[in-house]
Amino acid sequence: xxxxxxxxxxxxxxxxxxxxxxxxxxxxxxxxxxxxxxxxxxxxxxxxxxxxxxxxxxxxxxxxxxxxxxxxxxxxxxxxxxxxxxxxxxxxxxxxxxxxxxxxxxxxxxxxxxxxxxxxxxxxxxxxxxxxxxxxxxxxxxxxxxxxxxxxxxxxxxxxxxxxxxxxxxxxxxxxxxxxxxxxxxxxxxxxxxxxxxxxxxx
Length: 203
What we know:
Radius of gyration: 16 Å
Order of helices and strands: EEEHEEEEEEHEHEHEEH
Largest sheet: 8 strands, mixed
Low-confidence stretches: none
């Protein structure tokens, strides 16, 4: 009602309207966790202008944790400002990932996993991309990667990581856009070595 000219893109409802001002909505990110009563899922909402997020919210109703950010105004968790981890060695870093759903996405993710697993402190799949991005932003983990995602899976978390001082690119190191197919988010300090390992994996 407030912004009738904005478009809305939702996982469940599809897209309505055509505008360079768009809201993405994922009512349940981490559906498998939700269905199996695993308390790792969230509600994610982001607002984009010209394909770049400028406002993002990620809420875990079980943990009662609300992560949010506005462009150039920092990132926050329940009102307290957050920032990325300061770890600068891959072997001391926790990296989370999402493998994607298609056969090709799984094959690519498996290649990277096999290269990266011996070089990290921990390499895990959480099953909730937006929360994993927020965990990078809050310094709980050092990096997260995903390929073959839908845009509503990452927009809020993408902004939150950047506003917390982290770095978000595609797998080639190029700046993220809403048309990117891959995402690598990190604290920035291990980003280059992660990109080197991505290249070495051949994906």
